[in-house]
Amino acid sequence: MNWNLFVTELSAGITHGCVYALIALGYSMVYGILKLLNFAHGDIYMVGAYIGLGIITVFGGATNVHVNVVLMLFLMFAAAMLGGGLLGVMIERFAYRRLRTAPRIAPLITALGVSFFLENSAQLILGAQQQSYNSFSWPSSPIALNGFGLPAQVRVSYAQVIVVAGTIILVIALTYFVQRTQTGKAMRAVSFDREAAAMMGIDVDRVIVVTFFIGSALAGAAGVFNSIAYQQVFPTMGFQAGLFAFTAAVVGGIGNLPGSVLGGLLIGLAEAFSIGYISSTFSQAIVFAILIAVMLVRPSGLLGRAAVQKV
Amino acid sequence: MDGERDQPQVGVDEWVASHAERREQRTGLVGRVQDELERLPRPAFYLAFGVAAAFLPVFTSNGYIVRVGFDTLLYMLLALGLNITVGYAGILDLGYVAFYGFGAFGYAMLASPQFGLHWDTLFIIPVVVVATAILGLLVALPSRRLVGDYLAIVTLFFLQFFVTVYQNGNSVSFFGLTRHLNITGGPNGIPNVDNFDLGGLKISSLKGYFYAALITFILVLFVVYLVDRSRTGRAWKSLREDSLAAELMGIPVNRLKLVAFAFGAAIAGLTGTLFAALNTAVFSADFDVPTVIIIYAMLILGGAGTIGGVIIGALVVNVSLEVLRTPGHATWIFYVLVTATLLVKIRPWRWLVIVLGGTIGFGYAAHAIISSIWPSSVGGQTSVGGGLGTFLHGWVLHPKNPMMVGNVTFVILVLAILALTLLQGWQRRLAMIPTLCLAAFVWENRLVVEPSITRLILLGVILIVLMNARPQGLLGSARVEIV
Question: ipTM above 0.90?
Answer without folding.
Answer: no
